[in-house]
Every structure is written in structure tokens, then in C-alpha cells.
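Record minuted for everyone:
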Amino acid sequence: MTFLINQSGSLDGKIALVTGSTSGIGAEIAREFARQGARVMLSGQDAGRDVIEELVGNGVAREHLAFTPAELTDIKQCQALVQQTVAVFGGLDILVNNAADVSRGDIDDTSIELWERHMALNLRAPFILTQAAVPVMRARRGGSIVNIGSVNAYVGDA
């Protein structure tokens, strides 16, 4: 998949944090940002180092890539992820809130624990990450925050 993130075709000098970037859409966003010259903090539960090795093998500078595993249902880990991005790269210009739990269940067998995990990961984490990122972006005089959603917010399944 190839898509143009920035109309100018370049994200040179930009610093991005992409949650859920160890697979799927998040990994592809991280790949494209890196191809366009951004320094990218990948985050997820697994395989982030694999994505980095793939990108390095395709010519992206290793010093433009980092991986921090984070359990985004934990408020402190959300805040630390933004702080780690700033510590490694010196700032933050782009936050992509992509991580999500999309496991399914019906009303009879969905546990309160699963419901609470969905709320913590899919709703609270993007809020906390955004709250932590905005002061950093303000200090840099701008930034972009992208929240990835799903059609499942509007259309239910049986």
C-alpha cells in the first residue's frame, strides 16, 4: 500500500508517534511516515522491532526510528510514551492515535473487564495521549493529531 500523507511528499524533520504501529494500519502509517523522512516512535504490544528492522533494511536511517512498548490502558504509560518520544527525538509534531481493541462479544458474554478495556484503550488512551502531546506541540508552535476510528462506531454487528 502506498499513499501520500503530506501533499508536499515530505515529512523531513517531523517527529511522529504512532500507537498500534506494530501491525496493520498503524504499521503502514509508520512505514509511510518513515519513507517520507519523519522520525518515528513506534508503539504497540509486539513486533515493533520487526517493523524497524524492515525499514532499516529498506534504507531508513536507524536513528530515525524507535520502539517503545506501552500498555495504553495504563494512564502513566500513555504519558510516558509521549515523554519518551520527546526524550528520544527532541519533540513531537504528529500524534496518530491508532491503537484499539476490536475484540467482539454479545451482551450476554461480554465481561465488564472487556468493556472497561475497550473504554480505556479505545477512548481514554487517545484523550490522555492528546492531553500529553498538546503542550509539546504548542511549544513547537504547531502539530497534527490524527485519531483513527472504525465504522463500528456507527454500524453494529449481530
The longest helix spans residues 112-139. The CA atoms of residues 74 and 120 lie 8 Å apart.
